Amino acid sequence: MIAQGAHASLKAVLDYMIDLKGREDIKILSMRPDEAMYHWINGTFTKIVVGINSEKEMIDLEIKAKAEGLITAAIWDIGKTEFHGVTTLTALAIGPGPIDDIDTITGHLKLL
Question: Would residue 48 count as lying in a domain?
């Protein structure tokens, strides 16, 4: 669970970054963070982990978060170690972003 959450958190930031060179052989990434990303990176890197009941519920949360303009990053594990070769949605990062906006999407979920 920890590894999957770490993957999602890192992917959220990397997906946010911009490929400045645009070359296939060399990737130079840079970031022009909005206020929420800037405070998250320069602050405490707050992460809150909540439980979910189904893959469908996680997908629905991602759709809602994207519709609200929030950063999201879904992790699909390819099943080499835990899922017997079955690709499985294991984690979803939402944010960084405004706390109230994220709470609107995830506030009903139980903390782990």
Answer: yes
> Quick check: 33 pLDDT over 80?
yes
Task: Please indicate, yes or no, if residue 28 is contained in any of the structural domains.
Answer: yes
Would you say residue 12 lies in a domain?
yes
Check the CA dihedral 62-36-15-47 and report its sign: negative
Can the peptide bond before residue 33 be classed as cis, meaning omega within 30 degrees of 0? no
Domain-embedded: residue 111: no
| CATH, residue 18 | 3.40.1490.10
Which pair of tokens denotes residue 108?
Answer: 């009903």
DSSP characters over 10-66: HHHHHHHSEESS--SS---EE----HHHHHHHTTT-----B--S-HHHHHHHHHHHH
Cβ within 8 Å of residue 63, ≥6 positions away: none
Q: Is the pLDDT of residue 94 over 70?
A: yes
Q: What is the reported pTM?
A: 0.82
